[in-house]
Amino acid sequence: MTRIIGGLAGGARLHVPLRGTRPTSERVREALFGALDARSLCDGATVLDLFAGSGALGLEAASRGAETVVLVERDRAAAKVASRNAETVAKAGAARALVEQVAVSSYLQRSGRSFDLVFVDPPYDLPDAALTAVLVDLAPLLRHPATVVVERSRKAGPLEPPGDLALERTRDYGDTALHFLTTTGSFADHGG
């Protein structure tokens, strides 16, 4: 079972697509949002969740005070599950997430929005070059400062962010690595 960990919708059960996704474990989400909450990065934020699957990361941010959340998921079945989960979280009083059923690259190239906090949780087998292309397309949509969290397999090795993004730190949780990127400032300097 997947559930929202904290905030307005804390404890709400989330549905998970039957196939094609790899939900972020509760342990990893708890550590991630502990670090984000320490810097109040969800409060009033405009959040983008790329490769959203069930939407658990973006919806956790909504539960913790994000003002706007966009979930981007190409798979039709997963996008339906994310929409259902978004309704559950909104009923608890959190911001209602907008689900975009489209490829990540298409969304980034046509989006006119800007974001404070972005989750990038692609399939672990996504090639480095494809991930780099996503980050390049994402960079113009980021506010300054903005935080980007990339979830990958620990086996993928170090992340080399492009352009205006700087790697602030990486944290490993079993087979999962969380890479914290920022547009300006230092994650470590803010107690994260």
TrEMBL record:
Q: Which UniProt keywords apply?
A: Methyltransferase, Transferase
List GO molecular-function terms, semicolon-separated.
methyltransferase activity; nucleic acid binding
**Taxonomic placement:** Bacteria, Bacillati, Actinomycetota, Actinomycetes, Micrococcales
Q: Which SUPFAM superfamilies does this chain map to?
A: S-adenosyl-L-methionine-dependent methyltransferases
Q: Which organism is it from?
A: Agrococcus carbonis
Q: Which PROSITE patterns match?
A: N6_MTASE (PS00092)
Entry protein name: 16S rRNA (Guanine966-N2)-methyltransferase
* Alphabetized PANTHER family for the sequence: METHYLTRANSFERASE
| GO terms under biological process | rRNA methylation
Residue stretches in coiled coil: none
